[in-house]
User: Fold this.
Amino acid sequence: MVEYLLEPRYLSFDLELSLGNGRLSRYLKTGNSEALESYIEEGLKLGNRLADARATYSIAENSQDLIENYGFPEPLHEAKLLVFGISTIGEVLEKKVDALMEEGNYTLSNILDSIGSAAVDETTDRLGEEVMNYARENELNTTRAFQPGSGASHWKVNNHKVIFEHLHPEELEVNLTSSFTLTPKKSTSFAIGLAGDIEQVKDLFSCVGCERTDCPYRHIPEKTTAGGQRRGVTK
Ligand code: SF4
Assistant:
């Protein structure tokens, strides 16, 4: 039985993805964007309509048992509290990607898939802003976000389990398979440490520390995301 400091909260967001959105340029690598302009336009319309951006988070006390049982990355050892979070854009966009592929519309399918990846990143950023607001209001600092299986987190993928155990993911219709992948695919989970006496991290989400320096999706923000004030809509 989890003893929460903050019971799971549920958020939903209206995403307005556009070409000016930094998250999109991470995934849409269009060498000849003029030729693809109409596909991107249609992809954005579909993406903004079909992405069902939702998230949940909770806060609980950290403990030696958790640290040892789930092999927490070192920065989490110092945390007094832990934030557990899951974000998703649901499965409708993913189904449309598959349907377009089956129809032979490979270009639009690939573009929509990339837009879906940007959409779940944007959703996760918005959730991160909620966490930052909570931290500021309670005079706490945060570690970075640790995502099981991510190259930057150095935290084994099976540790999605501890995050799921501290939330009610069924409310978001997000599942963890026996091989520790999340469904729908455009979903992600993380843990963030909170304490008054830890150094505030500059960016919650970043690829810093990942050895795959040639990864096409590498993302290292230029400035902190900590100042964001956008609010989700609490269900
Ligand atoms: S560089 Fe690529 S593989 Fe590494 S954490 Fe970033 S997205 Fe993942």
Remarks:
- The helical segments are 22-27, 33-50, 64-69, 74-77, 92-103, 106-137, 160-165.
- Residues 150-152, 207, 210, 212, 215, 217-218 surround iron/sulfur cluster (CB under 6 Å).
- The first strand starts at residue 4 and ends at 13.
